[in-house]
Amino acid sequence: MMIHSLIKEVRKKWQHHETNRLIVAIDGLSRSGKTTITKELEKELQRESISYAILHIDDFITERSKRYHTGRDQWEEYYHLQWDVEQLKEHLFKPLQEEAILSLPFYLDKEDRHEWRSVHLPPKGVIIIEGVFLQRSVWRSFLDYIVYIDCSRETRFRRESNETQTLVHKFENRYWKAEEHYLKEEQPLENAGLVIYN
């Protein structure tokens, strides 16, 4: 039912959109189901022959030296330093409506470095951005339609691997505090166009 509501809303927004591209954000906290729902949306866009592109915000995180052991609290490192917010504003979010090709810094995890790659966008279609913390005030104005995937912390934590669940202190000090900050500061549920309870 939830995916049907999403498809219906995206179709309606696309049909009445005034520009050539509809920028759709799939926002939500870690393990909330963003990737799964994005894949379902992709299938529907293919079925309806609507041109699209998908961008994952986690492809653009910073090098480890910029987000670990910086002297700041762990949650601040995760929220403020995990991504170069201003760089992504300039190279990803601002050009989304007009540019045919984006030049973006893809992060290579094993090598801990970036590789700048070209991303071709359809001249007319739906652009999906999937990831956490997408409703930061510095990015929100570039998004046409925001979907927030809401899921309890307990459920999301159970979706982690058994090995990862042993790192509960890291979640307490790094991830969960950053999530609490985001929920309080940006109020993503209140500002989303559609909330899916997953």
TrEMBL record:
<keyword id="KW-0808">Transferase</keyword>
<keyword id="KW-0418">Kinase</keyword>
<dbReference type="GO" id="GO:0004849">
    <property type="term" value="F:uridine kinase activity"/>
</dbReference>
<protein>
    <submittedName>
        <fullName>Uridine kinase</fullName>
        <ecNumber>2.7.1.48</ecNumber>
    </submittedName>
</protein>
<dbReference type="InterPro" id="IPR027417">
    <property type="entry name" value="P-loop_NTPase"/>
</dbReference>
<dbReference type="Pfam" id="PF13238">
    <property type="entry name" value="AAA_18"/>
</dbReference>
